[in-house]
Amino acid sequence: MQEAERIQTEIQKVIGDDPTIQDSRKIIVMVEKKSFWKGGKEIVVLRGSVRSESDKAKAERIAQLHAAGREVQDSINVVH
Fold this sequence. Notes:
The protein is α+β, with helices and mostly antiparallel strands. The protein has helices at 3-17, 53-66; strands at residues 27-33, 42-50, 71-78. 36% of the residues lie in helices and 30% in strands. It has a three-stranded mixed β-sheet with strand order 1-2-3, covered by helices on one side.
């Protein structure tokens, strides 16, 4: 397993296992290249939807803790 795939799987699991995040299964974690040039940086991208700003913030904090220095882009939508 490549490091990017390992990080993606780890973040997805930790978010999914967090009992304080409602609808955690609706959050999708991806590790993507920021640019397509050789040596382009990888970033962690969060997508999906949650019910509160608090859940969005928790998911972002988890991603930052497990991103191994990668930038985290939070594209999660809050739906009420």
